[in-house]
Structures are given as C-alpha cells and as structure tokens.
Amino acid sequence: DGLQLGLKTGTIYAARETEMPVAVGSNALFGSDGTVSPTLLQTALQAFSYNVSTPRRDEEADGTLVYVENYSNIRLSPDGTLSYRASEVRHGLPLSDFLSMGDQESYGVKDVIFGAYALLDRIQPELGDLPGAGLRYSGAVFSPEEGCMTLYFDYVLSGMTIYCSGYEHAATLRYQDGYFSSVTLLLRSYEQQGSCRLADFERQWYLASIQSGVSPNVAELCYEDHLDGAPMVAGYRFGLVQEQPEPDVQAGQPTEQ
Q1: 3-state SS of the chain: helix, strand, coil percent to 5?
Q2: Which residue(s) pair with 66 in the sheet?
C-alpha cells in the first residue's frame, strides 16, 4: 500500500503482474547511414511555411543541415534535433495559423497550448499502433519581464512519460505576442517489441531506499530512452520531496508588556 510506504497521495504505481509494452526508439530524422529522412525534411519545411523547392541550404562540419528563408532558419542536427528560430518575434509563426478560430486580438493560455499541439502535430513522426503514444504537454514557464511563455512537451507511451537521456524535454516552444519565435524538437520514432511484466513495486521501493539511504516519498512510472537503440522497459523513478513547513502562526505576534 502506497500510504504504508510513505508515498505522497496521488502517486500512481502499477499493481503486481501488470504488463507494459516494450519499445525501441530510433532517430527519426537521420538514418543509420547519416542521411536525412526526405519525408521528414519535406514535412518540417512545410510545417514552418518554407518553400520546399527554394530554401538556401548550408551544411556544417558535424553534418547539421541549415535552411534559411527570409527572417528565420531551421537546423537539422544528426542527433535528431530540429530547431527553428525567427530573427525577431514578429517574424515568427503566427499562433492564428494553428487555431480554427483564426486571428484574435488576444489569446488565453489554452489557446497557446492548443496551437503548440497543432504545430507539433505537423512535424512529429507517426508512432504507428503503439498504445497511448505521442507528444504530451508537460508544463510551461512564464517570464513577465520578457512577456513570453516557454512550453514543454514530452513523448509518452501507454500514457507514461519517456525521458530521453541528455534532454530535459523532447520539445520546447517559445511564444510571445501572438507568435512562436522558436521551436526545438527531438524527433524520435518508436516501435513496440512485445511486452513484459513490471518488477514488484515494493521491492523496487526498498532497493531505492537502500541505495539512497533515505525512504523516497515520490515515484513515477515511466520509460527511459538512452538513445542507443536498447529496448525500453517501463520502470520507476523514485525521489524525495521535502514537505513545506507549516507557517508559525505565533511568528510576528506582539509580546505582552
């Protein structure tokens, strides 16, 4: 029982004998021979409103392809990362292009999130028949000083987050004044290779306690993609979140004279 183990309320973990998909990830943008996927290349250029037949292309020493058109550029790196940058916010991608309601005087947070989903849907590779697979909104950070919003997305499988080694998030988008001014997306494709039963949760929890010397109070069921083509098996990430101390209601009270 999670409460007996000291886990925070709301922690989700699988019951014994639960079967989860096993998947293998691969670079969706560049093949093993080092060449870029022509399908994804065309899809990406079109998603950012580039003229497929005329963009200027440069190639850097590490194999990164750079496409330039007007006031923006797209970089396709051999590790599978696509990066879009506009020279100025007003030269970015209009949010209205990704919303059915079209141009508006102002937009809410939900509008920006829906627009970001629509933009990513134009680029991300197909994930086939994998259950509960895709990109999922993970959160956002607001910068009042700059008036911008940075959104984060991650791949999921069976609804569980896939953490890609070396990357904080699979996708990061920057929004400001009605435009997406930058987009970074790690393009991965995943294929299922059977399924397996999860290791006993309590046993993993006790092992984590022994290794760390403290009893974890948070656990997340997830996948880890080490970007090496090894099969991904669902497992738990354990951690310790410090409880916030209760405010001292006596603090600051005047003393009796």
Answers
A1: 15, 35, 45
A2: 58, 75
